[in-house]
Design brief:
- The complex is a heterodimer of chains A (252) and B (107).
- Chain A has a single domain, classed as Cytochrome c-like domain (Cytochrome Bc1 Complex, Chain D, domain 2).
- In chain A, 43% of the residues lie in helices and 7% in strands.
- In chain A, the strands form 3 sheets. In chain A, strands 6-5-7 form a 3-stranded mixed β-sheet. Chain A has a two-stranded antiparallel ribbon with strand order 1-2. In chain A, strands 3-4 form a two-stranded antiparallel ribbon.
- In chain A, 35% of the residues are buried.
- Chain B has one domain: Immunoglobulins (Immunoglobulin-like, Sandwich).
- Classes of the chains: A mainly alpha (252), B mainly beta (107).
Chain lengths: 252, 107
């Protein structure tokens, strides 16, 4: 009996599960929501993937070229790409996330007006490209500039913010698995983006998800595509390295 | 045209129960929510879904404002004859979409 009490006390004193065992937000969902994600005929995110597939071969911009004209079959050319973003764009020497990378192709290679972030066109193409990496392990690029960005992101992740004065780490490392009002606090891994959130009734990016977390603590949100937003994403991806890409995931 | 994902078996044994599943992209705007300007957004929902087997209706459903966006319907029917399954969705603002799938029924 005493041994059991002691064990329980020790368990309570241990750091949250996050330290030893990583789990995707998928594991924290109800069986019904998991079933919805697992079945492509029921996963609403697949509607955007399908939309993106159509856009992939549509000619656009002054050059009248489609993504497929340059990249061919996405199943081959885009396989594993999403798993290593954010990455450095060689021409600018700066990091971009996947949506930003696609927008660069639209301006640079198609000479088209890039689809704004969070627009249906941007989400559909990003989901289609990311879907080509589904099941592959997240593998951030081995590049010192990315390492620097990850370190910046790690600092942002640990910084207390907002009127509630909470850091990402306080929820997603220290209290993961516990409840915040009705929801289980997940470990906060970016494995499924863009993903279908039941609360949104639609597809959304990681940056939109983060807006929910920052406004939740009454802090200013990161501007989508900004240096800080990409640094934070780079850190989250390094924290989730090796976990499989789930795009399009479903979340509550 | 809205995106649709249908799951229909290509073949079925006569007399067996088969499952049909239909997912469609639609906002299902309830008519009760304020938009970003503060004004209530007009209702925009799918009102009716039906599935017909060679013209004969085998399943239908009425949809209402409380139904989530991108409605997903799964239902069963009995395989009768080889033929065409027709899926139709009708709704506000003249929304109308039809999809067809062939099914082969074996003895």
């Amino acid at each position: 009996m005493r041994a059991a009490v002691l064990a329980a006390l020790l368990l309570a004193a241990m750091p949250a599960a996050g330290a030893e065992e990583r789990r995707s937000g998928f594991a924290d969902m109800s069986a019904a929501t998991q079933a919805m994600q697992a079945d492509d005929a029921a996963n609403p995110g697949m509607l955007w993937v399908l939309d993106g597939e159509g856009r992939w071969s549509r000619k656009a911009g002054r050059t009248e070229r489609s993504c497929a004209d340059c990249h061919g079959e996405a199943a081959a050319s885009m396989r594993g790409v999403a798993a290593r973003y954010p990455a450095i764009d060689a021409e600018r020497g700066e990091a971009v996330d996947l949506a930003g990378r696609i927008a660069l192709c639209q301006t640079r290679h198609q000479e088209a007006t890039p689809a704004p972030r969070e627009s249906e066109a941007s989400l559909a193409l990003t989901a289609f490209v990311a879907h080509q990496s589904r099941g592959l392990p997240i593998a951030p690029p081995d590049d010192p500039r990315i390492a620097l960005l990850q370190a910046e992101g790690a600092a942002l992740y640990r910084m207390r913010r907002g009127q509630l004065n909470l850091s990402c780490a306080q929820c997603h490392d220290d209290n993961a698995g516990r409840r915040l009002a009705g929801s289980v606090i997940p470990q906060g891994h970016p494995t499924g983006y863009p993903l279908y959130r039941l609360e949104w009734q639609g597809l959304g990016s990681l940056q939109r998800r983060l807006r929910g977390c920052t406004t939740g603590v009454r802090a200013e949100s990161f501007a989508p595509g900004s240096h800080d937003a990409i640094a934070l994403e780079a850190y989250l991806m390094s924290r989730a390295a090796g976990m499989p890409v789930e795009t399009p995931a479903v979340r509550p | 045209m809205a995106r649709v994902i249908l799951q229909v078996p290509a073949t079925a044994v006569r007399g067996s129960v088969i499952e049909l599943r239909a997912l469609i992209q639609h906002p299902m705007e309830t008519g009760f929510r304020p938009g970003s300007s503060g004004e209530v957004l007009p209702r925009d929902i799918i009102r009716r879904f039906a599935c017909a087997w060679d013209g004969e209706e085998v399943f239908s459903a009425e949809l209402h404002p409380a139904i989530a966006a991108n409605p997903y319907l799964a239902f069963t029917t009995i395989a009768t004859e080889s033929g065409t399954l027709t899926f139709t969705w009708k709704g506000d603002n003249g929304f109308a979409q039809t999809e067809t799938r062939r099914i082969t029924v074996t003895p």
